[in-house]
UniProtKB/TrEMBL annotation:
Leader sequence segment: 1-21
Superkingdom in the source lineage: Bacteria
Entry keyword set: Signal
Cited InterPro entries: Papain-like_cys_pep_sf (IPR038765)
Originating species: Streptobacillus felis
Name listed for the protein in its UniProt record: Uncharacterized protein
Length: 186
């Protein structure tokens, strides 16, 4: 029990004292839905912090080829893919879009091929960065799928963030391999 409290305290301190996120473009789900044509497969969607303690770390999705948000949801649910408009009811949190700068059709196809591997993974944050593990969480999922796809294609390994524990959603903002996408004013 002491270890769990210590780890939770570490997570909170890392997140609460993180850098300013105001330098990035943030949108409502409705705005993103209106600009869906500007999104590309496997863009990364970062969800802002919420008011609940479990929402203090944000959340991460990727956009699949059908322009649905793919996520590893949480303890009671696994992988899910839902249309962006289905999130329009969320009014108190915003999202930001990140795009891998060197995306190719071959890499996109490989990521798409790997998605089914994550359908039945269980959620936990106490997991390493091994894509063959039975467990994952949102940031770990995004990190692993890009990394594994690059290895499968025998290209330079794609580490979107430093390979460490934990990988948090806001870590992706500081990757030199990703760009923050501007979708226009709301």
């Amino acid at each position: 029990m002491k270890k769990i409290i210590l780890i939770l305290t570490l997570f909170l301190s890392l997140n609460i004292f993180s850098s300013n996120l105001d330098d990035f473009h943030w949108y409502t789900f409705r705005h993103v839905n209106r600009n869906i044509s500007k999104l590309e497969p496997f863009d990364i969607v970062v969800l802002s912090r919420g008011k609940e303690i479990t929402q203090q770390f944000g959340h991460l999705f990727i956009i699949n080829k059908d322009k649905k948000l793919v996520e590893i949801k949480g303890m009671s649910e696994y992988y899910s893919d839902n249309p962006i408009y289905s999130f329009a009811h969320i009014k108190d949190r915003k999202i930001s879009i990140l795009r891998y700068k060197n995306m190719t059709e071959e890499l996109s196809n490989e990521i798409d091929r790997l998605l089914p591997k994550y359908y039945n993974k269980h959620y936990t944050v106490f997991v390493g960065n091994d894509p063959d593990n039975l467990y994952t969480y949102c940031s770990n999922f995004v990190f692993n799928i890009f990394n594994e796809a690059s290895k499968n294609l025998n290209m330079e390994e794609i580490n979107l963030v430093k390979n460490r524990f934990p990988i948090l959603p806001f870590d992706f903002f500081y990757s030199e391999k990703l760009e923050n996408i501007y979708l226009g004013e709301e």
